[in-house]
Protein: Small ribosomal subunit protein bS20
Organism: Candidatus Borkfalkia excrementavium
Amino acid sequence: MPNIKSAKKRVAVIEKKTSQNKMIKSAVKTAIKKYNAAIAAGDIAEAEKLLPVTVSAIDSAASKGILHKNNAANKKSALAKKLNEIRTFAPAAKEEPAPAPKAEEVQPVAEEAAPAPKKTRAKKKAADAE
C-alpha cells in the first residue's frame, strides 16, 4: 500500500481507468457476440445493421488505446469477411428459379441497325506515304 499522497492518487486513478477500460472491452465483446449470433442465424439484414455498430465500438476502443490499432483492424476485417462469406453463399442457396415468361407476353425486340464500319484512314495514309 502506498504511503506517499501522489502514489495513493495514482492507485485510485488506475483503478478508475481499469474499470472504464473493462467496461469498454466488455461492450466491444458484447457487440461482436451479437453480430456473430446474427451471422450464425443466417440473418443477413440484422448482421448488416449490426456491422457499423460493432465496427464503431471497435474503433472507439482503438482510439482510446484500449485495443491496439492492428488488433482492431484484424477484428474489423474478420467481421467483414464473415458477412461477405454469408452474402455469397446464402443467395445461391435461397434463390428460386424465376418462372419462364409465357410466349404471348414476350414482345418482339426491334432489330438493331448494324454498326457502321470503322474508318481506317490513318493506316492507309501511313502505307501510302512509305
Q: What stands out?
A: The domain at 5-95 is CATH 1.20.58.110 (Methane Monooxygenase Hydroxylase; Chain G, domain 1). The mean pLDDT is 85. The first helix runs from residue 5 to 41. Residues 52 and 76 are 10 Å apart (CA to CA).
